[in-house]
Amino acid sequence: MSRQSWQSDRLGGGAVVGMVRHIHQVHRERPTVGGALRALEQRLLAGGQRTALRNAWSAVREDQERAAAHRDAERALRATGAVPAAPAAAPAPQPTPRASTGPAAP
Q1: Using CA atoms, how far apart are residues 72 and 105, in angstroms rounded to an integer?
Q2: Most buried residue among 18, 47, 48, 104 by CB atoms closer than 10 A?
Q3: What whole-number distance in Å separates Cα of residue 20 and Cα of residue 26?
Q4: How far from 35 is each of 20, 21, 38, 106, CA to CA, in Å?
Q5: Is the pTM of this model over 0.70?
């Protein structure tokens, strides 16, 4: 793709399409949605914001994986009988009546 067609795509409103074509030509592989989103992110966000966003998503994925591993381990332990099932929620405490300090109601 020539530089002129790249600029005409960008100026004509097809910036994302142009970026996908550019990515495809540079890497010589099939463009992906993720690649297009990364290219768009690169154009819109400053470097520090990109890094922060990437780090945040990595942390979210790690938390999800850790939670899934915890659930799997808990299920396996329950299946073997090593850990009893979670207890049912305790009933809510009942309010205690207060002693009246004033005159009795008629």
Answers
A1: 60
A2: 18
A3: 10
A4: 8, 11, 5, 79
A5: no
Main-chain phi, psi angles of 89, to 5 degrees: -65, 140
Place of tokens 């207060």: 98
Per-residue pLDDT of the chain (106 residues; tens, 9 = 90+): 455 554 444 445 566 666 666 665 655 677 889 888 888 878 887 778 888 888 999 999 999 999 999 999 999 999 998 876 666 667 777 777 776 666 665 5
Nearest alpha carbon to residue 36 among 16, 9, 56, 52: 16
Please choose, from the candidates 33, 32, 36, 3, the residue with its C-alpha nearest in 3D space to the C-alpha of residue 19. Answer: 36
Check: CB of residue 39 under 8 Å from CB of residue 63: no
State both tokens at 13.
């409103």
Cα(35)–Cα(45) distance, integer angstroms = 15
